[in-house]
Amino acid sequence: MLVPTAMGKGQRAVQAFRSTEFIEKPRDQEGLVLGGNPFKDAPSTSASLLSKKSTVLSEKSASPAVVPTVSKEVIEAGLKDEPSELESVPTFILVTTYLSFLMLILFAHARDFVGKLVNPEQYVQLREQNGYAPMVSDFESLWTRRLYGRIRDCFNRPITGVAGGRVNLLERVSHDFNTTFEFTGRIRNVLNLASYNYLGFAQSHGPCADKVEEAMREHGITQASSRVEAGRSKLLVETEDMVARFMGTESALIVSMGYATNALNIPSLVSKGCLIISDELNHSSLVSGARLSGAAIRVFRHNNARDLEKQLRHSISQGQPRTHRPWKKIIVVVEGLYSMEGEFCKLPEIIELRRKYGFYLFVDEAHSVGALGKRGRGICDHFNVDPREVDILMGTFTKSFGAAGGYIAGSKALIDYLRLHSHSAVYAEAMSVPVLAQVSSSMRMIMGEDREHALEGQQRLDQLALNSRYFARRLAEMGFMTMGDPGSPVIPLLLFSPAKIPAFSRECLKRNIAVVVVSYPATPIITGRVRFCISASHTREDLDHALEQISDIGDLLMLKFHKDKVQPQHLKAE
Q1: In whole angstroms, how far apart are CA 572 and each of 201, 470, 474, 476, 542?
Q2: N or C: which end of the chain has fewer CB within 10 A?
Q3: pLDDT of 278 over the 70 cut
Q4: 97, 526 Cβ separation under 8 angstroms
Q5: Which residues does 121 contact at the CB level (< 8 Å), separation at least 6?
Q6: SS3 sequence of 3-58
């Protein structure tokens, strides 16, 4: 059992990070790089940069004694109740969306009823056989068979090569209503707005790929063991130390799988007699970890600090069910960036509640680390919050770092405990050498510690922020209804109607644009959406081309619900 002091407020590692300026390049009025690959002119050495004034930190910014605090203005601004985007949705759209789903479900049941009479052999797996009950009932599998199956061509599209700013898509067709697929043998190069390649590190060439090759020649491919046996390598220890410095914590633990970072570490932190208070829209890995722990679970309304405080007050005052004994531990679990909504968690408000009620705070930074903040340190960097205010910082390397796996960062006592008690450390295999090399090389570049590419990391951060704000603003100007906070690299665009969800995906594919569409049960039934993932590897020409095509699709499918916001500006760069 982990005692509270082992999770506590350990001293932050004293490390001044160098903040380098991005490479000066020709830019348009929006600040975006004009044409070409935004990283192709990165310097090969840092000799010419040593005299630059911009690469030297001022005394104030370099001082480790400066502790960022949460301003009162930020907290008060966050406490104001903001109107929901859905409040401005025309009633006609909401009514027709509900009616559309109702019609689909009714027709699905009707097809099942007739099919069982006319062609019963196709429903054998849904009936009792030889005294055995079916694995799933016809009602439980109705959604998969009758609704998802009809639009399966919009999902799990196979690719080949690197999923960078553009990606090669293997073309396939179906002649039996998406029951099976056949490859045509053709490859289509499409603009990639579907991958979490936020900083553009998904590359098969360049400095990171070179580092990976060097590491494999020196260390091989894998340790073929868990870290507690023979998997604790020098490269693993060095990378964990780097992650700790990057996040501003005492120590860090690296896990070879992102999902398992949550699912296998949360049960090590809490157990029966503890309480987890979770945001209602948390990722399924957090939900799995909470359920496996055996702790009591309570849910608060998404990103609502008032409801969180209400849950805290009730839980602390009432204690455990039946006995009313105090909870052993209370952990609040949130995400830094909610990938399905493109929203930032209200961290300053939650920090204030933590100071008031004394709970432990677990922040999942799977999508925010590397993508948010002036230095790419995630949600704490974005809000200028001291990482010591967060007990457990979790993140993954899948998105911003172009790798795989995840990490837990916190106090040394916490990490030492997890190394001995977490199933991810005791039983799971240690992270492979190529992935460790990719993580360390990309992180060094972001931190400005790679002398040969000292400016490229900061340039990627800058480019991502500019791309994200520009793309979201132009969508809103064209009249689309979008979700999320300014600066989020994930930009959801609401589609509503179930018929428009596959139609939007197919129309984008016709125009050589890869997107991700999402519907129920991953989202509420009325908020089906397309989720655009912006990358630093996208140029202004890429974004303008996508916006022009998306505008045409919006006119075709009548998706511009806010036409009064449209401004008469030509989408193409002059």
Answers
A1: 27, 13, 12, 16, 10
A2: C
A3: yes
A4: yes
A5: none
A6: CHHHHCCCCCCCCCCCCCCCCCCCECCCCCECCCCCCCCCCCCCHHHCCCHHHCCC
pLDDT value of residue 567: 53
3-state DSSP assignment of residue 212: helix
Q: How much is the average pLDDT of 181-195?
A: 95
pLDDT for position 562: 77
Task: Decide if 247 contacts 387 (C-beta within 8 A).
Answer: yes
The per-residue pLDDT for range 226-270, each reduced to its tens digit, is: 888 888 889 999 999 999 999 999 999 999 999 999 999 999 999
Contact residues for 369 (Cβ-Cβ < 8 A; gap 6+): 247, 336, 376, 377, 378, 395, 396, 399, 400
Burial class of 208 by CB neighbour count within 10 A (0 to 12, 13 to 18, 19+): buried
pLDDT 10s digits, 64-114: 333 344 444 444 444 444 445 566 778 888 899 999 999 999 999 999 999
User: How would you write 60-109 as a 3-class SS string?
Assistant: HHHCCCCCCCCCHHHHHHHHCCCCCHHHHCCHHHHHHHHHHHHHHHHHHH
Rounded Cα gap, residues 361 and 445, in angstroms: 29
pLDDT for position 531: 95
SS3 248: coil
Query: If pLDDT is split at 50, 70 and 90, which confidence band does 357 have?
Result: very high
List strands edge to edge, sheet with 251-255. Answer: 251-255, 406-410, 392-396, 360-364, 330-335, 275-279, 296-300
Rounded Cα distance, 200 and 467, in Å: 12
Bridge partners of 166, per DSSP, are 191
Where in 158-313 does DSSP place strands (E)? Answer: 159-160, 166-173, 182-192, 251-255, 275-279, 296-300
Quote the percentage of the chain above a pLDDT of 90.
68
Q: Which residue has the tokens 């806010």?
A: 562
- Looking at residue 432, the DSSP 8-state letter turns out to be P
The angle subtended at Cα 301 by Cα 363 and Cα 487, nearest 5°, is 55
Let me know: does 534 contact 475? Beta carbons within 8 Å.
no
Q: What is the pLDDT of residues 314-337, one digit of tens each?
A: 999 999 999 999 999 999 999 999
CB-CB contact of 463 with 38 (8 Å): yes
Per-residue 3-state assignment (H helix, E strand, C coil) for 371-401: CCCCCCCCHHHHHCCCHHHCCEEEEECCCCC
Sheet holding 182-192, edge to edge: 159-160, 166-173, 182-192, 513-514
Closest by CA position to 431, among listed 221, 255, 252, 244: 255
Residue with tokens 């991005």: 22
b/e burial code for range 121-148 (CB count within 10 A of at least 16 → b) = eeeeebeeeeeeeeeeebeebbeebbbb
Q: What is the pTM of this model?
A: 0.83
Nearest to 312 by CA among 270, 355, 263: 355
